[in-house]
Amino acid sequence: MKTLGFVAALLLMLAAVAFFVVARNTPDAVDFEDVDLDARVKQFLETHAWGGRGAANVPAVDGLTLHNIVLEKGYTRALEIGTSTGHSTVWIASALSKTGGKLITIEIDEGRHRQAVENIKAAGLSDLVDARLGNAHGIVPALEGPFDFVFSDADKGWYKSYLDALLPKLEVGGCYTTHNVGGLFSGWFSDSGDYMDYLNGLPNLETTVDSRGRGLSISYKVSE
Ligand SMILES: C[S@@+](CC[C@H](N)C(=O)[O-])C[C@H]1O[C@@H](n2cnc3c(N)ncnc32)[C@H](O)[C@@H]1O
Fold first, then answer.
1. Which end of the chain is more exposed for a tag (fewer CB within 10 A), N or C?
2. How many domains does one find in the chain?
3. Cα 44 to averaged position of ligand 1 atoms, centre (Å)
4. What is the pTM (predicted TM-score) of this model?
5. CATH, residue 140
6. How many angstroms is it from 224 CA to the middle of ligand 1?
């Protein structure tokens, strides 16, 4: 009987921890009333919190951070690697609609790319987004640049190669962000340790990690 009680208490505790983890990673963590967003963008983000199985969209807290960086720094030439169904795309493009900028985003999966194009349209941002279907391994090194904002959120094993290809094309003062590094349970999605060591070792980047969502590294380029 005692053992049963102990197991029940343990399960209750685990459920409470799981609830806390899920709650801090859902769009509820952002009060949309406090964010100055276009009505169609707000409508999209509020009604599409769940992007579908396997979509792995950013939680709103990370989306809002990306949005605010672009807006506050006035960035206009943005690149996203890993569109999925376009949630982070909408957050970033929403900020670009205020700075007068444009975004290139790349996705390898045709179904998710198609859904993203629809979602971007629903949010009223099609004119600002060049959504490309294909393998970023080949597309990224061929991009001309320059960029002042990058969000890297595709295959984690290629993070370093994307960074190496893009750093020379990132303007001084620009920002390079990477998802799923160092947040709670980020190890479940990627082994980000080596990448973070590499990122932190680069002398022309100043890097911090925002761990409120799923671990977002934010690196400003301070010199060539
Ligand atoms: C974590 S999801 C991106 C989530 C998206 N940024 C969002 O918040 O809505 C990663 C996406 O990267 C895509 N991907 C993986 N490897 C890729 C590659 N080599 N080239 C382009 N896209 C890739 C996957 O198909 C997947 O949709």
1. N
2. 1
3. 20
4. 0.87
5. 3.40.50.150
6. 29
